[in-house]
Design a protein that fits this description.
Two copies of one chain form a homodimer.
Chain A (H helix, E strand, L loop, with lengths): L9 H8 L6 H8 L3 H8 L7 H11 L3 H18 L15
The structure holds a DNA duplex.
Chain lengths: 96, 96
Amino acid sequence: MSRMHNPPHPGEVLREWLPEGMTVTEAANALGLSRVTLSKILNTHAGITADTALRLAKWLGTSADLWIGMQGQYDLWQAAKKPRPKIRPIVAKLAA
Amino acid sequence: MSRMHNPPHPGEVLREWLPEGMTVTEAANALGLSRVTLSKILNTHAGITADTALRLAKWLGTSADLWIGMQGQYDLWQAAKKPRPKIRPIVAKLAA
DNA sequence: GGGAAGTGTAAAGTATTAATTAACGCTTAA
DNA sequence: TTAAGCGTTAATTAATACTTTACACTTCCC
């Protein structure tokens, strides 16, 4: 089902992965990103791209999937908040 | 693990969900998208956004997750093909 | 033959978003 | 007081999705 309400922004989660005492500047350098870009992500002002997910995976030893999946959940949740035209289900699913 | 090599573009998969005989034009109308946009998706010339995933979910009775996840896998695979600076793992994970 | 419908694609325009570098003001620690 | 780190803004560049309009092509049907 993959239910989840109000999934966290990936940046919040990434925060928890940064080793104690590591500066944002250091992390940005390690990832080959600018300090501004990483700061934006960590403060939920930018999202994680496929490219960034791959960098995080290499750096942290996680799957890239983890990050891209998290971003997807977040995006879906945000998009669901916005108005959208009513869409009629293609067929009334008749089970019985 | 979520391993997958060469994951299909979501548009290819969407193709299979369209009922026999339904025209692209009809499907686009049902989804509230322009014909051009849907055609691009089906021909793998555009991706599926969170908004589009929600429309597909409503229309087809699937989860939105399915589509956004598929797009994520596709994006990751494409991104992985491109060059990226070498990134040193943060710590050599010493298990023993 | 000739029209109508459906399709793929291209072009032009709008909007969003991620990325960069440079710069500013703030806080904290030496 | 200086230096480092941080968050944030601004200006720029680059993608990408989406729209409408338009064109060329095929297929089907009279």
